[in-house]
Amino acid sequence: MTIVITKSKLAIAILAAVLVVPATAMATHVFDDVADGKFYAGPVEWAFDNEITTGTSPTTFSPEDDVTRGEAVTFLKRYHDAFGPVGHATVLVDGSIVAARSVGVTNANVDLEATSAFCFYDLDFEFTTVQVSPLYDWDNNEEVDTSIEVGYPDVNDGATDCDGTDPLLEIATTVDSTWKPHPFTITFFG
Questions:
Q1: pLDDT one-digit tens code per residue, 126-139
Q2: Whose CA, among 19, 90, 123, 142, lies 20 to 30 Å from 57?
Q3: CA-to-CA distance for 67 and 189, rounded, in angstroms?
Q4: Residue range 51-73, pLDDT digits in tens
């Protein structure tokens, strides 16, 4: 079975995947063959503005042409380089980092404070958002009701359990509705 994707549809798919990225100003009339009224005009302009595409020439995008494998790989690589993860870690209940599963985060960057506040300090990269997921409790081989709260300094009551200077982020965990350390993975996005 062959699936055909046009460039305009791929541009819309890429834009839909990045709605969590803060909005950027859209250029107008970058490509002569992409009219402002077309449903894909905004996504195409966004892809151009963010250097995901350069068009098929300096003045054309060819929105109705099929996407080649090379173009698809190029779009995905450029998107990943611009908006992909900048660091990630697996954090255990004692606040230690699993080094083999972590990039850009070391034991020196995280500290378990208060009851279940994992505080992150001095990361060597900038981030705009994080994704945090609790890990299954393999030791007890049972499901527990876990929840994770993310706190940023100076945002509502975020990072108030961190005692150190200038925490970048606080992750608080509960197990069965009780504040208790729980292992998790965290991915930082630029």
A1: 888 889 988 876 66
A2: 19
A3: 28
A4: 999 999 999 999 999 999 999 99
Nearest Cα residue to 186 out of 162, 174, 170: 170
Among 57, 39, 36, 55, residue whose Cα is nearest residue 47: 55
Matching residue, tokens 């046009």: 6
What residue segments make up the domains of the chain, in order of their start?
A: 7-83, 85-189
Measured CA to CA, the distance from residue 153 to residue 114 in angstroms comes to 16
Which residues, at least 6 apart from 43, have a Cβ–Cβ distance to it below 8 Å? 8, 11, 12, 14, 15
Nearest CA to 48 out of 17, 6, 7, 4 is that of 7
pTM of this prediction? 0.64
Residue 173 CB: number of other CB atoms within 10 A?
Answer: 23
User: In Å, what is the CA distance from 33 to each residue of 17, 53, 58, 172?
Assistant: 24, 15, 11, 51
